[in-house]
Specification:
Number of domains: 1
Strand content: 15-25%
Distance between the termini: 22 Å
Number of strands: 18
CATH topology: TIM Barrel
Helix content: 25-40%
Structural class: alpha/beta
Oligomer: single chain
Radius of gyration: 21 Å
Length: 429
């Protein structure tokens, strides 16, 4: 591979607190050789390939901590190939895949299969999760030590919560001993069963069962209390409410070490967007009030929320075009993750570096992987985007196999132009 030099770029790399006009050189192994305003063509080999960024923004490839891939068992919804295409079109170069496949990723043979399959079929960096409990049933722990030794990045029961407190204490105790990452979905089962929308006026008007924000808060308070006794690597997958944020603030101020994620859906939509039974906006956790959405945005600004995830969950049309209470929850979002996040910059809610930090280096640090950075010697995973380019979301043009986007027809500002993976061009607009 020839050496590459990117010129005329606005380089933003929160891992180095860098936001400057300059150049970046990748060596012939696809690693960062030099970066910054002082780098010129003289620093590159004479035969280096020159890529003119034309004043657009160059950042590390995005790290998405929560995405579903349909293999094995749900290939009709998504597969490694289509997930890769969608991710790269959105500037995402590293993905944490969820274990709710068929069968579940909860044993060594399934781990070996998923890693082998991903290596053969995917054109992105894949970091698979395994289930916390067998079949994600919340009864028997999986073999954390054994599975992490085979390449598992963390453990999650996806959109199911460990309800049994005694079991959760044992999980955190064991995780603390061996240093694995636990990723919890926070939602009390008894308070949320049969619910499909935020509890409130709209739920009442539509005649739908609602779930209160208390269901989320109870689990967070319980787990953070346990964390005092069992200080493991603990991550809350997604929060959705102002109430939860208050609990998180109190505990972080008290010195507890844990991390928090939020879905781009909950940052950009609220329950009013559901309108008259728009099932493509049925999500888990559900869309909340506008005041909750604003609080979550502020939570990122204040450093209470660490990462933004796509919560990419493909569903076939038949699963979505049902009565609201029967429709599947979830939306595709990995391709629109960055452009939708940029809305918060364009409406002056968040500074650009804060958004990019939550999409790159923060998730990489939580996962303890050498991604989300353009520091010297790091992998040449790069996203180049036009901050101002306007475009309209058209589900039929999305690269995911399923087309269940929650933002069909939405006008966005900011578009990925090129994505490089390990120094190789992987997507070109």
């Amino acid at each position: 591979m020839r050496e590459k030099i990117f010129i005329n770029a606005r380089i933003i790399d929160p891992s180095q607190k860098m936001d400057e006009k300059g150049s970046l050189i990748l060596n012939n192994n696809g690693k960062v050789k030099a970066i910054g305003k002082s780098v010129t063509k003289k620093d590159a080999n004479p035969d280096a390939e020159t890529i003119d960024v034309k004043g657009n923004i160059l950042i590390p490839g995005l790290v998405d901590m929560k995405a579903f891939v349909g293999e094995p068992g749900y290939e009709y919804k998504e597969n490694f190939r289509t997930l890769s295409h969608a991710a790269l079109a959105g500037g995402v170069t590293s993905i944490v895949t969820m274990p709710n496949t068929k069968p579940f990723i909860d044993n060594v043979s399934m781990v070996d299969f998923i890693i082998r399959r991903g290596r053969d079929k995917a054109n992105v960096n894949l970091f698979p999760c395994a289930s916390i409990t067998k079949q994600s049933e919340g009864k028997l722990m999986t073999e954390f030590g054994l599975l992490s030794g085979r390449g598992i990045i963390g453990f999650s029961d996806v959109n199911k919560t460990i309800q049994n407190t005694e079991l959760m204490a044992r999980i955190m105790d064991y995780a603390s001993d061996i240093g694995v990452l636990i990723m919890q979905h926070a939602e009390d089962y008894e308070l949320s069963k049969n619910a499909c929308i935020n509890d409130g006026e709209i739920a009442t008007r539509l005649g739908l069962e609602g779930v209160s924000t208390i269901a989320e808060r109870i689990i967070i308070e319980r787990d953070l209390t346990l964390l005092s006794e069992y200080p493991c690597r603990y991550h809350i997958n997604q929060i959705s409410s102002k109430q939860s944020l208050e609990v998180i603030k109190k505990n972080k101020n008290n010195g507890k070490k844990f991390t928090v994620g939020v879905s781009i859906n909950n940052l950009s939509l609220n329950e009013n967007d559901i309108g008259e039974f728009k099932t493509f906006l049925k999500l888990s956790p559900p869309l909340r009030l506008e005041e909750d959405r604003l609080a979550l945005v502020q939570g990122i600004k204040d450093g209470l929320i660490d990462v933004i995830v796509s919560d990419h969950l493909p569903e076939d049309e038949e699963s979505k075009r049902l009565p609201f209470s029967q429709a599947a929850a979830g939306a595709v979002g990995i391709e629109t993750l960055l452009p939708l996040s940029l809305e918060m910059f364009h409406n002056e809610s968040l500074p650009l570096n804060k958004i990019i930090e939550a999409l790159t280096i923060n998730p990489a640090k939580i996962l303890k992987i050498n991604k989300g950075t353009l520091s010297k010697g790091s992998d040449g995973d790069i996203c180049i985007f036009d901050l101002e380019a306007p475009w309209k979301v058209d589900a039929n043009k999305l690269k995911s196999k399923s087309k269940n986007t929650a933002i069909e027809g939405r006008n966005l500002q900011g578009k990925v132009l090129m994505t490089f993976l390990n120094g190789q061009l992987a997507f070109n607009q």
